[in-house]
Structure formats: structure tokens, C-alpha cells
């Protein structure tokens, strides 16, 4: 599996520190990649994205031409009214996205997704054509018999 790296990730982090988080009115609006872990277990890849505080309805998964796009939006909490005065707001709000390039050895049609405790877990099976297989070795005598 080939994953897209974001060479601007550290620049994004520094910019967020100085200008504010994405989605904040009047500040920088580049979508922020979400942290992930990816590993292989048997005949599938598992990818886990950290999305704490994101509602299931605010997560979108799309696959197009072997590119998997995960998009999520963390909205401000509904704290109940106009009399609320926010004291500390450090959790980033807005749209977060990440793209993974799926190699030809993966079965994009068989992806399964679960979301629990703020973690989106994708299970991507390895395509049958990419799995190792044994090849029988024949002898020259067998080939002569087949061609005769």
C-alpha cells in the first residue's frame, strides 16, 4: 500500500499555532490531515484514523481510481445558548481530510469501515490476484504427452 505523504504537514502545524486552527473565521483554511496508523494483519491492511469529537454523520469515505479519501468535519459544540462565553478553545474545528493511494494489490471494493470511540478503522483486503500461490512444476515428459 502506498500512502500519500504531506510535505507541508509541519508547516501546517506551525501556521496553525500562529494563525489559528482551520475553520476559524478569518484564519487559514487549508484542510488538516488527520493522524493515522496503518499496518498489515494477515490478508488485509488496517488503517486507523484519530477523529475524536467527530460525529459519524460528519465522516465521508470515497474511493476513486484507487485513491481513498477520508473527509471529516469537527463542528463547534452546542453548549446551549447565547450566554456561553468560551474560556479556552484549543481543539481544532473544521474540515480534516486525508488521501491514501491504494496499490493494485488491494481490493478497493472490499473495504470495511467501523467507527468507535473516536477512531475510524478501515480494513482493506488484499486482492486475490496479489496473494502468494504455489505453481506446480511439470517435467518435459508431461509436456510431450500434452502436445501429442
From TrEMBL:
Residues 27-140 form the SHSP domain. CDD domains: ACD_sHsps-like (cd06464). Coiled coil: none annotated. Gene3D superfamilies: 2.60.40.790. Pfam families: HSP20. Belongs to the small heat shock protein (HSP20) family. This is HSP20 family protein. It comes from Kribbella pratensis.
Amino acid at each position: 500500500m502506498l500512502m500519500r505523504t504531506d510535505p507541508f504537514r509541519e508547516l501546517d502545524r506551525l501556521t496553525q499555532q500562529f494563525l489559528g486552527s482551520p475553520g476559524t473565521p478569518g484564519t487559514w483554511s487549508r484542510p488538516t490531515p488527520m493522524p493515522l496508523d496503518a499496518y498489515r494483519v494477515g490478508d488485509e491492511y488496517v488503517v486507523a484514523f484519530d477523529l475524536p469529537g467527530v460525529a459519524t454523520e460528519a465522516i465521508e469515505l470515497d474511493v476513486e481510481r484507487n485513491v481513498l479519501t477520508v473527509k471529516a468535519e469537527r463542528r463547534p459544540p452546542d453548549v446551549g445558548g447565547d450566554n456561553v462565553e468560551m474560556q479556552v478553545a484549543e481543539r481544532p474545528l473544521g474540515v480534516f481530510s486525508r488521501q491514501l493511494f491504494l496499490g493494485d494489490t488491494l481490493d478497493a471494493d472490499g473495504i470495511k469501515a467501523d467507527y468507535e470511540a473516536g477512531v475510524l478503522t478501515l480494513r482493506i483486503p488484499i486482492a486475490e490476484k496479489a496473494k502468494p500461490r504455489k505453481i506446480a512444476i511439470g517435467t518435459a515428459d508431461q509436456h510431450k504427452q500434452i502436445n501429442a
